[in-house]
Structure formats: structure tokens, C-alpha cells
Amino acid sequence: MNTSKKSKDLIKTEPLQPHRAEKKEEKHKEGYIICLNCSLVYFNKRWQETDPKEVDHIKKNEEVKYDLCPECRKSKNVAPDGVVEIIGITIDDNMWNLIKNTANEEKSRDFRKRILEIKKKKDKVEVWTQSKELATTLGKKIHNAYKKKSDLEIDWLHKGDFVRVYLRG
Ligand SMILES: [Zn+2]
Hints:
Blueprint: H1 2-13, E1 32-35, E2 40-43, E3 46-49, H2 52-61, E4 64-67, H3 70-74, E5 82-87, H4 93-109, E6 115-120, E7 124-129, H5 132-145, E8 151-157, E9 162-168
Parallel strand pairs: 1-4, 5-9
Antiparallel strand pairs: 1-2, 2-3, 5-7, 6-7, 8-9
Helix pairs in contact: 4-5
The protein binds zinc ion.
């Protein structure tokens, strides 16, 4: 009896493992990523549903990038009908917001009007869209907002089945 009590005590007094050692690094270095298609925000190493007010706060105070979350990437098993190529133009926060807000607005009217993927390349960014209309709308909106900085060219391909929109700085 005595021995069993002793061993219990032993177990109890075993020091706790410092599992939470990393707890302190609240601000991760990579900054935040906001999904262009839904309300998820990537921080603390995972995509999280985030209150819109919190998202606004993050946008104002943190380093933010825009991309698609994994779910939105997956759900886009659809062939794109358009792409906007932003070439030689620095995409600042305002332009990202313009792209995101335009896409959100259009998507709320028609689900097919959505961004499927954003590809960041060396000298350009490609915004692939499910609908041709969204690609042309984005192109025109960006061009209007950055008139002095961008040239707009719209190329209809495959007898109008696909549109390639160029914005050149
Ligand atoms: Zn998403």
C-alpha cells in the first residue's frame, strides 16, 4: 500500500513538460495573408475565420498579403475564362483592395464572377478569373484608378471564349 502511494506521488511531482515554450512568439514573421475570395485570414500558421473588424484592423496595422486560401484554391476546379496580367506595375495596398473589393462585389451578384487564382511572377501578377466579365471589369477599374500608370489592352481569344487583359506600367 505504502509503495503504491509513493509511486503515485512520484507521478504527481514529475515536472510538466514545457509544451508551450513557443507561446511567446505571437507576432509571426511572415505577416498576414488575407484570402481574396472569402473571409479567412492566415496568421499563427493557419487559416482562420476572422471578424471583419479585426480584418480591417489587421489591414491598417500589419503587413498584409493577398492570396487564395487552400479551400478556395480547391473549389476552383473550374477552367478560367479570363486573366488579368498586371505587368511592371507595383501593386500597392490600394490596388490589392481595389482588386479584392471589385471581386467581392461582382461575386455577390454572380458566383461565377470570382477570382480563381493569383499568380505572382517575377515581373508580373496574373489574376485568373472564372468569368470573362470579371477580368474585363478588373482591368477597367484598375486602369481607371491608375490612369497615368497603366495601359489597358483587352485581347479576346478563341472566338471570344477567353479574355486576356493586359495592364502595363
Ligand atoms: Zn478563401
